[in-house]
From TrEMBL:
Domain DAC residue range list: 81-251
Alphabetical GO biological process terms: cAMP biosynthetic process
Protein role: Catalyzes the condensation of 2 ATP molecules into cyclic di-AMP (c-di-AMP), a second messenger used to regulate differing processes in different bacteria.
Gene Ontology MF term list: adenylate cyclase activity; ATP binding; diadenylate cyclase activity
Species, as recorded: Galbibacter marinus
Entries under PROSITE patterns matching the protein: DAC
Reaction(s) the record says it catalyses: 2 ATP = 3',3'-c-di-AMP + 2 diphosphate
UniProt-recorded name of the protein: Diadenylate cyclase
Keyword flag Repressor: no
EC nos: 2.7.7.85
Amino acid sequence: MELFDFVEIKVVDIIDIFLVAFLFYYVYKLVKGTVAINILMGIVVIYIIYWLTEALNMRILSNILGNFIGAGFFALLVVFQQEIRKFLLMVGSTNFRGKNGLLKHFSFMRQDTTTVETNVDAIISACEKMSMSRTGALIVIERNNSLEFVKHTGDYMDIEVNQPILESIFYKNSTLHDGAIIIEGNRIVATRAILPVSNERNIPLRFGLRHRAAIGVTEKTDAVSIVVSEENGQISYMKNGEFVLFETLENLKNQILEDLS
Ligand SMILES: Nc1ncnc2c1ncn2[C@@H]1O[C@H](COP(=O)(O)OP(=O)(O)OP(=O)(O)O)[C@@H](O)[C@H]1O
């Protein structure tokens, strides 16, 4: 008799294992570096103790922990509200989109059918210029999720994206320089918009409100944002509630083009 005769692995089991691994990977990615990781560890410890008390037939303790775990499921939805939201956004927007993405074949599932391409060249050139002159800027580019809720906090506009316009909006003495601009397709549709600020604890302290706001909008929607720091001219790119690292502006341009495709 073979040792593993009793183990029958079907294709479905393999898919199951992959999906669980995928789920764990994303849960870990979301909670890594946040306070949520401590809560998650607490839950794992309680679950292990519960499992042990069950195995050892310790009925009172296992009953108490069992009830706690049962009710805990709903508590988890509240505690991990931000993370669950981020996770659903990540699953729903990032990984299956793109030129060859799965959702491309299900075009009826997309809210937006914008065909006008954003002038990414103009955005990058403007950022480069603003970086050299230490001009602070915050640019948000809409993807599938509507940004109506942030647009109405600023002034509605309808201007074509081009380098001089971007530079003049963020020019220090301009009346429009404060807050964020929102880009839809190749139009600047709002200026002076106030974005939701991220509460993420693992954002380094050297980043102030402009950077937190740029992260915040990408946590709540699938938009991408670009910041030019007034303090040091550094250009940052944010997506899915995180900084996206890049080496050169050419890399950044290609990354944005890929994310918008
Ligand atoms: N919630 C927000 N939504 C949109 N814009 C914001 C928000 N909070 C701050 N800003 C913009 O960021 C500007 C500077 O903020 P702050 O100095 O705290 O940012 P920072 O991240 O340190 O960036 P910098 O490196 O440019 O100083 C503000 O004057 C404002 O224009």
